[in-house]
Amino acid sequence: MKNFKHKLFDEVLYFENPDSTTRKANELIKSKEAHGNFLVIAREQSAGIGRKKNFWFSPKDGIWMTAALYGLSVESNLTIFTGICIHKSLSKLFPEIEGNLKLKWPNDIFLNNKKLCGILSSHLSANKYHLLGIGINTSIDEFPQELTDIATSLKKELNSEINNLTILNTLFDIFAEDLPDFIEGNIDIKYFKRNSFLLNKTVELDTDFDKFSGISHGINKQGALLLELKEGMIQPFYAGTVVSWT
Q: Which tens digit of pLDDT belongs to each residue from 105-153?
């Protein structure tokens, strides 16, 4: 993927084995070695970062990258928007998996009830950058024992070779096309709800301040999870960790 280019980015920077693409993007911004919109891609990561700084397994043959977007003015949830774009891309390229490909609030995509993709967003307000860390398990053959029941890859599910460049081109074409509408404050909540992993499930949510349990009703226009805590009372949650679902 070292030769990948896209009109959305002024620069695409490829690294063989950084600790993580997000840390590398941070370094490039602070050292002023990268400018404008840029993309950091890694062949593999030695210390990939998941949500809450958990380790993300990221060997060769997956897609590991961080998009750095400069001067982006958004109020809605960039992670949710990116997840929708990735879902649209994979559904377009692999229509046979569309029915089993699900968006799991706040930052995952599941395939056949296992994690396929994770997204992390952060805002470096002092530098006017939004960072989007994206990991997609594309051509991974085997996972560590502790991940076999909870993670999967496109190659394992489709039993075929996966072209990462095709996925990147399709993803950023859709991202660039939908971005202006998103900047205007529009997020496709109907698309998310249609493809939601948690929809109508009883969800336990840990907000770090307290735990809540309720039935998931999708998201609102700001990307908040809507939980029916008791009959007729639906509460939006803008942050939190989904601990369990039934």
A: 999 999 999 999 999 999 998 999 999 999 999 999 999 999 999 999 9
Residues 13-42 pLDDT 10s? 999 999 899 999 999 999 999 999 999 999
Domain with CATH 2.30.30.100 in the chain: 198-245
- What fold is seen in the domain 11-193? BirA Bifunctional Protein; domain 2 (3.30.930)
- pTM, full prediction: 0.94
In DSSP notation, the chain reads -TT---TT-SEEEEESS-S-HHHHHHHHHHTT-S-SSEEEEES--SSEE-GGG-EE---TTSEEEEEEEET----S-HHHHHHHHHHHHHHHH-GGGGGGEEEETTTEEEETTEEEEEEEEEEETTTTEEEEEEEE--S-----GGGTTTB--HHHHHTS---HHHHHHHHHHHHHHHHHHHHTT---HHHHHHTBSSTTSEEEEE-SS-EEEEEEEEE-TT-PEEEEEETTEEEEESS-EEEEE-
